[in-house]
Write a structure and sequence with these properties.
single chain; alpha+beta
């Protein structure tokens, strides 16, 4: 996204006043626990956000510099890749669902579910992302003398102008990983060892010809707060449906499981088609319960609609 960085309030406000297109994104440049972003709908809101960060110290030292950025419109996609600092092997694309409620409504979360592959990512877009995003990023880090080895995560927005980077993470992304890695046919340990040793080029990384859907089960109050202590029931029944159940915000006591966080479980399913994977994942979800459990009912709907349009 087009952006400028400011430490001077007057210069930042002067830059804002020249902008005609809204919304505009105002970000605290430091670490702000995921809360240092304001999407300003008007000039007044943008100016106030800058004043709050630079003058009011809303985010403390994190707001000593602010980034004023273009608001990107489009559909999100996540492309993770394996790299040994030279060779890059993209994984199957995925799409996360950030909002707490169905239809992308409500507060932002760490992710309420994902599916893979993401139909928004065509073969043409895969090549563009490799050539213009992944390859330049890996090359630049190598040139700077700190080659990156491991899993590089590119969070993307597929805009009318093409794919643009929302964020990079130097790790696997959650909940995308629970949808992507079940589709990996090759041995993950061998691949990661090759990344560490610089021999990724010699590895054959193969994927299943299938789809995966991952649904996050969250506790009551999430994302603002979360409950804890409620007993989780139905885990064995969920596994009998063929689903994978990943634990996150849970704890085990004397052989029983209890809620101990915001996003508690991930229920993932693999099947030949996206619809079958979605139906199977929700069958697994239906077997699990605790008081106050919440989840989205529309994971993968965007992908299914896109596939239907292609037909």
């Amino acid at each position: 996204a087009a952006y400028e960085t400011f430490t001077d309030e007057k210069k930042a406000i002067s830059y804002i006043k020249k902008k005609k297109k809204y919304p505009l994104v105002i970000k605290a440049d430091g670490l702000a626990s995921g809360k240092g972003v304001v999407i300003a709908e008007t000039e007044e809101q943008a100016v106030q956000a800058v004043r709050d960060m630079l003058e009011g110290k809303t985010f403390g030292s994190a707001g000593e510099a602010v980034v004023i950025e273009e608001f990107m419109e489009g559909e999100e996609a996540s492309v993770l890749c394996f790299t040994d600092g030279t060779t890059i092997v993209p994984m199957i694309s995925a799409q996360d669902h950030k909002r707490i409620g169905d239809g992308d409504m409500g507060a932002n979360t760490g992710g309420m579910g994902a599916y893979a592959p993401a139909p928004v990512m065509t073969k043409e877009l895969d090549k563009i992302v490799y050539d213009t995003i992944l390859l330049p990023a890996v090359k630049a880090m190598k040139k700077e003398g700190c080659p990156f080895r491991g899993c590089l995560y590119a969070g993307l927005m597929i805009t009318k102008e093409g794919p643009k980077v929302v964020e990079f993470n130097c790790r696997f992304g959650d909940p995308e990983t629970e949808a992507v890695l079940p589709l990996l046919e090759s041995d993950l340990a061998r691949i990661m060892l090759a990344c560490a040793k610089g021999t990724l080029k010699k590895e054959k990384v193969e994927w299943k010809n299938a789809c995966a859907v991952d649904v996050v089960l969250a506790s009551e109050g999430y994302p603002a707060t979360h409950s804890s202590g409620e007993e989780i029931v139905g885990l064995e029944e969920a596994k009998k449906t063929g689903c994978l159940v990943f634990h996150a915000g849970s704890m085990k006591k004397k052989g029983r499981y209890f809620v101990n966080g915001g996003r508690v479980l991930n229920v993932a399913a693999v099947a030949p088609t996206l619809k079958e994977a979605r139906d199977k994942a929700y069958e697994g979800v239906s077997k699990i319960s605790w008081r106050g459990m919440q989840y989205r009912h529309d994971i993968a709907d965007k992908g299914l609609k896109r596939l239907k349009k292609r037909k």
